[in-house]
């Protein structure tokens, strides 16, 4: 018995029973030993075929098992006659009605009957335990069972079969067929679903089984064994699901003829899903999912084996097909195969053809195939091998692979090997990504003929990405990334010519990007979108005449061996040459594209063995730093033309001359020299020629010469400040390199960013804050500052005559109006003057926007102010009043393209006013203190948040005079022409910025500064009062012309990390001329309380200012 419970049956028949017994023992030992053998196939050549041959031997033995011995260990008892008997007519028996007890020898004479018809049953066939449902066994002749149980089932318990049929040729030559045509479900708790056999040494008896229905069995679902010495064909067609508890779904073995199995349905079995063994053609066609130890196995000893399957398979072995003398065809038409060993395995004496249209997962192999002639694989779907190769294919004469899915493997992604000395070819065409964690991505080797590899996907491998060899011609075409962590990205070898084309992607290997070994006339073509690079060599060859045509990018060393070689760097291509470019003496590097020793961004030297010619369209890129430059050393001749492009990597501190090329003989000259990109690291590039050397001279890098004509004053000031420090000998901090890496318009915004204009925003904000406080302190017509003899300080009406036109229309006052006027009129009875106090509180605030100046480079500035003031006034005489006030608040401002600032504010001030009839004069002094914080962000070299904190002081004074008269319009309007002069002095201390985050590379120190802005006002104030029974309401307005004598807002700064780099940055400046407008309303009550609200606006061509204040006052 084997591990699956099958009796061992010899592959070929010997002349004696002893020979068969020896065969059984030998095959049993092979099968049992190899079922647990995890070894992978051997390597290339003869060892590979030995491994495949050994693998085939144990599988032949395993597939050669049969049930003839084991099946009879437990013989079922013959079926007993059911309640309804069977009728016989000639050689045909018919059973109908109630056959629940089973149908067997007791129901008809099986020696005389060759056909049994079972139909029109009224119940299930469910015999006693150990009794088969239907049993038809003859010692010779044909057996036919036609069983239609579509409405009923066969249910068997005990060690018995659902249907059992057999015929034995016992002593004379006999032919015939064991035929079962069955419809209906079968359940066997201890035996087979359907069991058929032919046995004996004489006769040629076929087996035909057609079954439709579900089969559930303890042993095989269907078992067909043709054991006779001249056994016939086996044909099985099953439609319906099959379940086997300990054995196979379908088991068919013919030891002298062929086997055909057709299955439509799912199979769940303990051993094989479908097992087919024959000496001639063996065909399995299955549709449905299979779960078993071995999914489908087919073996033909002397002819072809073919398997076609559609559906999922989950098994230790997925699909296996072998042929001892013919070919193997496997077609997996859809679904996924998951296997602990091989998803698909094929072995044939002739050819192997495998078609796959699903995903394959194999613990050892996705596809493993070997043939003595050729192997052809066409796979669409992903293939995964956890411990082995995705595809491992070996043929004597030819191997053809077409893969249209991704492959992931521990060993080879695709291994294709043709080992015969008279072989024809190996071709691999792969579309999809391939990953190999421990071997090569694609390995294609032919001992004879030619090898062709086409790869259209990405390949990532531990060894060579793509490895192609042949004795004849080798061609390799790659489109996609190809990488190797230890070997070559692409390796191609041939006894004839080698042609490698890299159409696209990045080709990079730890050893080499492309390695062409041997060959006669070899060509490497690199496409425009391709990149070839390598750890030791980008491109390396050995013998042969090698030509490289590069239209893409090559990075690294190049070694083209000892033949007649050429490297053609075509137009628009790039050769980032390594330290060595060895073309062989007398061979040429032609550059019509770009040549960059060590690549752009790295200074290095390239030694070229051979000659160098640069065409008029070529470019020679030279990286330079303050101490060295790229250099091309040519062993032969150098023919010069085209351009030199200079790439400074850091600022040059002084004029420097470099040798950038030398040759045995130099002819011609470069047409021009320019900078690769506009920077400020160096300037004034120029070439000179001394002997066979080419010299490059550069002047020190400065910012100012790199500025475009549209640079503004601030940008030029910053650039000049930095240049001045460098010219003075200061070393350039490394953090300034990103700034010097720019030039032209690209330099402008960074210069604005580092200028620190934010600091200038504190000045105008402070002036605005002092202006608003002075306005609150000195308002000449605020309640209580007009006339001390009235409780509310009314300023009087338009006329002194009580009967005058106090209101429009000239009407007489009413009694109430006369009483109110009498209380406030200047014509009231004389009162004794009494010194008195006024106390008040006010809230004030506003915002201002000032436009920047494009020529200066200042940016628009916006500021906001909010504060609260409280004060007291005291009348020293009827015409003189003085007072003081204290205020607190805060400011904020922002500079476009700059930063922000804020401050806490304290103010204190005093005023005095004297009235002389209708004239007045007011004077005031004030002081302001601020705790200021500024913030800005610089993003030139990272993100630097820079902050400064400091305290500043301000002083302000104002002197105003005017004369009030009453205009006889609309009942009398007070008009007051006035003039005022005001100054504000802002003392800024010296202070520095600190880096809150990032670095202080561009942090500034600001110089102390005292700036005074004097302004004059000439304007007209107007007022109009309206009396009521309990007080007076007054409307006021103002229109004035303002002149600022010092509107500039500039500040000096120095970079902390570059001493001597000082400059002046201009902030947004006020207009010299502006218009001032005011509107207010005031309400005074007879009880001494008053309140007022005021709006103020100041406008110019660059400024828009809006402010307001509210006052609450009490007089007593």
From TrEMBL:
This is Autotransporter domain-containing protein. It comes from Bradyrhizobium japonicum. Residues 832-1116 form the Autotransporter domain. Pfam families: Autotransporter.
